[in-house]
Specification:
This protein is α/β, with parallel strands linked by helices. The strands form 2 sheets. A 7-stranded mixed beta sheet has the order 1-7-6-5-4-2-3, sandwiched between helices. The longest helix is centred in the middle third of the chain and has 20 residues. The model has no long low-confidence stretch (mean pLDDT about 95).
Length: about 350
């Protein structure tokens, strides 16, 4: 008897198990797993037609910008999605997609997902939310009105820095059909073992995210009090512009990502990221180990020389689950090397 699986690019049992699991976490009717987060992003962008226009965060992942500008050569506008008047002003008759990150990468701005989703719905556009930083443990964008949720499962969902993958969740049957067509036709599918690794990671997602959040709050508070630090971006701090919105939208927890601008700018930041010992210099995020990144030269290097370039004094921390006192001691020694 036919078991429903005829060709592994189209479907396989392990991938189906992962899709069911992650869709349930997002409260979605449907889920699709991809070979990478960028493959998932690409599938959403391919739902648009020639001449369609996209709005996306002014602060956002450089890889998404690169895909739109250099691969699709799409029509898009970067705008502060936290400013609804600015969003309305940037809207065009041909706008068909609003791409939301919240919190954003690397600035950790917070966007009112429900407000943006409502605006997009009124105007006949898709609202897509990259939920990689928050994860469904903290935030479920479909419940706030989004049409599709995107994840790099390489990050918190996998959780162990040993797999590359992506995921989309949606309740929209018509959108699902288009996304599924792109994935099957283009073949950007994860292998069964990659799906197994993400399923393994999800088993400890709640435990890990709680520890990530606790450690990140401690790191953010420490950095905010350190004389070598000019500014800290973390939604959990009361002086963050999006603190109250994040508290509502993310269930009172604020994630494991922290960014800080160092006094001394580029020279100080570049020196700092090679002095840390427990925080490993690395471009990824969301694993159990703590990483420090330098977006201006790493994850956002493709934006150099543009108005969207990362602040050369900014460093980004993916705060892991190690002992918090060890993490703070490492930051202190790296920030004050001559003490």
């Amino acid at each position: 008897m036919h078991q429903g699986y005829e060709y592994a690019r189209t479907a396989n049992p392990t991938r189906a198990a992962l899709e069911t699991c992650l869709a349930s976490l997002e409260g979605a009717a449907h889920g699709l797993a991809f070979a990478s987060g960028m493959a998932a992003v690409d599938a959403v962008v391919r739902q648009l037609g020639p001449g369609d226009h996209i709005l996306l965060n002014a602060d956002g992942y450089g890889g998404t910008h690169r895909l739109l500008s250099q691969v699709h050569r799409a029509q898009f506008t970067c705008v502060d999605l936290g400013d609804l008047a600015a969003v309305a002003g940037a809207w065009r008759p041909e706008t068909r997609l609003v791409w939301v990150e919240s919190p954003t990468n690397p600035g950790l701005d917070v966007v009112d997902i429900a407000a943006i989703a409502a605006l997009a719905k009124e105007r006949g556009a898709i609202c897509a939310v990259d939920n990689t930083f928050a994860t469904p443990w903290l935030q479920r964008p479909l419940e706030l009105g989004a049409d599709v949720v995107v994840h790099s499962t390489s990050k918190y969902l996998g959780g162990h820095a040993d797999v590359i993958g992506g995921f989309l969740a949606t309740d929209d049957d018509e959108l699902l059909a288009g996304l599924r067509l792109v994935r099957n036709a283009a073949g950007a599918v994860p292998g069964p073992f990659d799906c197994f690794l993400v399923l393994r990671g999800v088993k400890t997602l709640a435990l890990r995210m709680d520890r990530h959040c606790d450690n990140a709050m401690a790191v953010a508070r420490f950095l905010a009090s350190h004389p070598a630090v000019a500014a800290v971006h973390y939604p959990g701090l009361p002086d963050h512009p999006g603190h109250e919105l994040a508290a509502r939208q993310m269930g009172g927890r604020f994630g494991g990502m922290v960014s800080a601008v160092l006094r001394g700018g580029e020279e100080a930041a570049a020196a700092f990221v090679i002095r840390t010992r427990l925080f490993t210099l690395g471009e990824s995020l969301g694993g159990v180990e703590s990483l420090v990144g330098y977006p201006a030269r790493m994850s956002h290097a493709s934006l150099a020389g543009t108005p969207l370039a990362a602040d050369p004094g900014l460093v980004r921390f993916s705060v892991g689950i190690e002992d918090v006192d060890d993490l703070l001691a490492d930051l202190d020694q790296a920030l004050t090397p001559n003490r």
